[in-house]
Design goal:
Elements lengths: L1 H29 L19 H7 L2 H9 L17 E5 L5 E4 L3 E2 L7 E2 L8 E6 L6 E6 L5 E6 L9 E4 L4 E5 L9
Antiparallel strand pairs: 1-2, 1-9, 3-4, 4-8, 5-6, 6-7, 7-8
């Protein structure tokens, strides 16, 4: 009898925990409620015109993401942030980086040594301002995130220098250490 009660309690706890995690993900998507293209689960490539993005994105996010602007160094919310979790594209919700790939850089922007998975980001040559750089774009929506440099730490030697304003952050679930 005690074993049955224990199994029942554990089963109910696990069901509630899973439902809570699913509700948290849904709530995160709803935080972007004015943006019908935002999803942390959909990985399909978006081909949305800038006129549509301009209607759903805050002006600062639009300027960096769609017009390739850059936020000032040392002003973004994540440049020296040390939370454990996952960074997402603030435009479309695409999973981009893990906090364990973030490192302290003196450049003034959040820096990572690798993306979370192949295809999370894409690259384009950038010759703007008389420099030869590699632009980093969201692999789902094509939004400008920042630039890639070859002066990062091991194991990759890369520095993904990103604009905070085009990143969203979700802390790890400390109960289950779920890395999705």
């Amino acid at each position: 009898m005690i074993l049955r009660i224990t199994i029942f309690v554990v089963t109910v706890f696990l069901e509630v925990s899973c439902q809570t995690k699913q509700e948290e993900t849904t709530m995160a998507d709803r935080q972007q409620s004015g943006n019908p293209y935002y999803s942390r689960t959909d990985t399909s490539v978006l081909t949305i015109p800038n006129s549509a993005w301009k209607k759903v994105l805050p002006a600062g996010v639009y300027a960096v993401a769609r017009e390739k602007d850059t936020e000032r160094a040392f002003t973004g919310k994540y440049w020296d942030f040390e939370g454990l979790g996952t960074y997402y594209c603030a435009v479309c919700g695409n999973k981009l980086f893990r906090s364990d790939a973030k490192f302290a850089s003196t450049c003034g922007w959040p820096s990572f040594f690798e993306a979370v998975r192949q295809g999370a980001v894409v690259y384009e040559p950038d010759g703007s301002y008389g420099m030869n750089r590699i632009e980093v774009l969201c692999g789902r929506c094509g939004s400008h995130l920042g630039h890639l440099f070859d002066d990062g730490p091991l194991p990759t030697g890369k520095r993904y220098c990103m604009n905070s304003i085009v990143l969203g952050f979700a802390p790890d679930d400390t109960t289950h250490q779920n890395r999705q």
